[in-house]
Design a protein that fits this description.
It comes from Oryza barthii. By secondary structure, the chain is mainly alpha-helical. It is about 55% helix and about 10% strand. It has 20 helices and 13 strands.
Amino acid sequence: MAFGRRLLPFVGRPAPALAQDYMLTQALLPSTLHLRSYGEVETAAVAPLYPSASMVFFQWAFSGVTVGLVAGAVLGRMSVKAWMAFVPLWTTLSYTVGAYSIWGGGFLFHWGVMDYSGGYVVHLAAGVSGYTAAYWVGPRRKEEAGGGNLVVMVAGAGILWMGWTGFNGGDPFSANTDSSVAVLNTHICATTSILAWICCDVAVRGRPSVVGAVQGMITGLVCITPAAGLVQGWAALLMGVASETLPCYTMNAAMSLKVDDTLGILHTHAVSGVLGGVLTGVFAHPTLCDMFLPVTGSRGLIYGVRAGGVQVLKQVAATLGILHTHAVSGVLGGVLTGVFAHPTLCDMFLPVTGSRGLIYGVRAGGVQVLKQVAAALFVAAWNVAATSIILVVVRAFVPLRMTEEELLAGDIAIHGEQAYTNFSSGTNCSLSHETIEVGNS
């Protein structure tokens, strides 16, 4: 449904993906064949030189990561039964729509929207859906709203950062020139965002914080995701600064809201993803766009006001979904992609030739920014609606939220084990209204 033959403008035809005959054939995304308005082939369908089994695994990993990000917004209170019902429904009805529309050959793909590695498809979608799910499930118990283990957090952040190299570098489906640019830009933006967040902590709180550094790392990685192989290094630096500023502000401003987004997924992923997507419409370099996009002539706003302005609008629409770390950062990254996308890199990656960021042409770049904005709006709106409908349906059959007794006992009630066990003193827990009794003495 996400990468098959067209069924609707936003979804492909369902087909088996695990049959041996299919997995051993050469990978092919048939709907990515892009034709000019008069029928001539502009860019051929994506056909990487490896078997379909590799493509299935690679794209499965992206969908799995997206579901994991959604989970970060409802940790510690959504019931296991509700979650098990939600995941397949959301993956089928929500994730596949964004993936096909932007990556698999849907209407946003052929329109020339830039999302190099998932600022919209992964981070904007996860940020918006996670925040929506947090609204329906409800907040955590007040006494459990604090942080966890800093050492484990830093270790996890390091693993995440290392994995992002393959996340962005593997998206061209080969170890080529564009993938090298994507990897380098990924680390430039992340390190810049970390430094910017630390400086903000010092300016506001008087001292740096480890949590702030990790948040800066995540927002930087998310923001560069839609633009990784489409912008130059100096644009990645600017996006790193921007990816700290807006998500940090939205995260602090959201403290008064009643929705309990456990890991700040809205800010670090949604907002950053939108920002990155829109900035892609500004900075996308024409050469890089022609290397990657199906629509020739794409470019960021700075490379042509007319074409770039349209691209920026495309990016913004595809970005306005993730809330703080992923939503805000995802939006930010999408918009900035429309600003900074380099023409050469765009031609290497995009199906629409001639794409570029805003700074490479006000006319062409302005069009790209408009595309980015439009895409963000579509992804955000679809995920809010789909997530809400799915959760309302699931709620009719099973409770979305764990009982108060289960919340009080925690992991020991649900799984019969604990993440952090005090082996020396043991644990005793008895719950009223339930027959849950745990003894470990």
